[in-house]
Fold this protein.
Amino acid sequence: MIEIDTLSVTFNAAGRLVRAVENVSLTVGAQESFGLVGESGSGKSTILRAICGLAPISGGAIRIDGKPVAPQTRAFARQVQMVFQDPYASLHPRHTIDRVLSEPLTIHGLKTTEGRIEQALTDVGLPTSFRFRFPHQLSGGQRQRVAIARALMLEPRILLLDEPTSALDASVQAETLNLLTRLRETRGLTFLMVSHDLAVIDHMCDRILVMQHGKAVEALSREALAQGAMTTDYARTLFTASADRLMG
């Protein structure tokens, strides 16, 4: 479903070239969940933004379902949606949840029905009575569920997940991850997920790519991650840090 071939992303920051991503390649199969993990500044979120046309591609190629990516088109939006890190910033503060969920349908000329909005809320475990609430009347976890529901309104095949639980409390984080897992299974979704936390990636992903300073450091299967069978010092350090956080 996703093919990334020697992708490079270079920014010009105050007259200085910043190589955010350098020659990264990966493939994600249909209905697979693939994780990108690394510290802040490793380039993992930049890859998601490059797929969506929000970061400049300076080299390489991206294909979705075998075709060159055409971001910011209606066809792309029907196939690929992104869930952002911050549920506080990703929803318009003056729009009701009903409007948030109906807007993608309106933009794409699709019929919006009361039942469709209520079903979307039910699918993410929220009461239908939330339809006419505003984002500030919801908790962080509830807002992220609305963001997930909005991403699913166009029935995409691929979700790009950019640290979708890092702004949430630990208990809410687990609920959101379980929700995403259930939705992937019931809808046959493909995930490309970014996190700095190997424990989150281990819970969600079939395969993992560890990144550092914009480069791919090590590819791991879920089994290798669970066994701590890393071959690089950097991946081992990330694994130890995640384990320490869980123990703490």
Observations:
- The beta strands are 2-13, 16-28, 33-37, 57-64, 67-68, 80-83, 158-162, 190-195, 207-212, 215-221.
- The chain has one domain: 2-247.
- The mean pLDDT is 89.
